[in-house]
Recover the amino acids of this structure.
């Protein structure tokens, strides 16, 4: 039964009879569920609450309903295997009940940065042990994790933000588990590229996710040239300190007139979506460097034929490649391969502008 010692005059009615059974409920949870208990006269010392059960006899604790994730036993509902769990990209509320249940039930959580992930687990009062798992120790950790999985453990993998394996550690481990016939389960959650794409205003029916560009300038240029010729929306992850470089190189490949969207600090307090042309973006961000990771989307080419670059642009690209160590013949090949201009035309320009260097190369051969 429920015992109430001193309670201000108040009528409480129930349309159905609720049988009671033994066991103490959580006072705080019950207080949150019953409106009058949140009033100013409520004092935990004046009440003793007992849990109640349904007519069928199953126990109900106040507050423990479908809105709060229920814990599963490690050997019960969850099967042993690798669970790739999506976590918030900024706002800690952007996590599913299922994700929380998996994280609570796992034997271990693989985390890109244990200090960063520890804040998320602390926020949701999750006590599962953390193990670091990032790009610098991924190869060493794989066999340790694989052994634990083969022993029947439940392993959850999270990244610092978003969905594991998408420009984050996890891809190789997932491949290894698949090859070893170990269960791999996706636990859907936030993903920066999909979040930005959905509100971009650009075409969403088809898109190409490029992610982070290569560090080597020649490889970056090749990739941007490929993207510039595609008709689908192109999506890139760009660190804030490399935004100016990205816009300059994109301008050379896509042209200044191509529309782009720069998504910054998504789901956070200072969330921003900048929209305009690549040329306008260069001007807008030339004087300041934004904070936070950036997701940049560039519209696909709209015409079947890409507008040919000017002779000055071709010369600039050739000189840039040569200064970065490429031979003249390789520079000609790269520039011609990334534009609609024929290789013969680019080679002719190279002879006029860099003929002396070509002669030196031929003599050395």
């Amino acid at each position: 039964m429920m015992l109430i010692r001193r309670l201000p005059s108040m009528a409480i009615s129930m349309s159905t009879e609720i049988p009671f059974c033994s066991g103490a409920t959580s006072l705080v949870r019950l207080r949150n569920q019953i409106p009058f208990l949140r009033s100013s006269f409520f004092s935990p010392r004046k009440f003793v609450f007992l849990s109640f059960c349904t007519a069928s006899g199953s126990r109900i604790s106040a507050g423990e309903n479908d809105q709060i994730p229920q814990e599963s036993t490690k050997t019960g509902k969850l099967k042993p295997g690798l669970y790739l769990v999506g976590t918030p990209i900024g706002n800690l509320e952007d996590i599913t009940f299922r994700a929380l249940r998996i994280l609570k039930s796992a034997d271990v959580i693989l985390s890109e940065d244990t200090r960063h992930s520890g804040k998320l687990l602390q926020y949701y009062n999750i006590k599962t042990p953390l193990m670091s798992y990032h790009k610098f120790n991924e190869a060493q950790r794989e066999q340790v994790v694989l052994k634990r999985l083969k022993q029947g453990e439940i392993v959850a993998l999270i990244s610092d933000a978003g969905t594991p394996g998408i420009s984050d550690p996890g891809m190789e481990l997932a491949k290894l588990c698949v090859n070893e016939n170990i269960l791999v389960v996706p636990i859907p959650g936030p993903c920066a590229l999909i979040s930005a794409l959905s509100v971009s205003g650009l075409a969403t029916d088809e898109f190409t996710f490029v992610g982070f560009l290569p560090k080597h300038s020649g490889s970056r240029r090749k990739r941007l040239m490929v993207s510039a010729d595609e008709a689908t929306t192109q999506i890139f992850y760009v660190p804030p300190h490399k935004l100016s470089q990205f816009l300059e190189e994109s301008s050379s490949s896509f042209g200044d007139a191509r529309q782009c969207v720069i998504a910054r600090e998504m789901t956070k307090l200072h969330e921003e979506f900048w929209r305009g042309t690549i040329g306008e973006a260069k001007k807008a961000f030339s004087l300041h460097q934004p904070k936070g990771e950036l997701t940049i989307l560039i519209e696909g080419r709209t015409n079947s034929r890409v507008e040919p670059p000017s002779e000055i642009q071709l010369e600039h690209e050739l000189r840039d490649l040569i200064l970065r160590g490429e031979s003249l013949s390789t520079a000609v090949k790269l520039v011609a391969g990334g534009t609609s201009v024929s290789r013969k035309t680019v080679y002719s320009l190279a002879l006029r502008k860099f003929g002396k260097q070509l002669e030196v190369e031929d003599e050395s051969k």
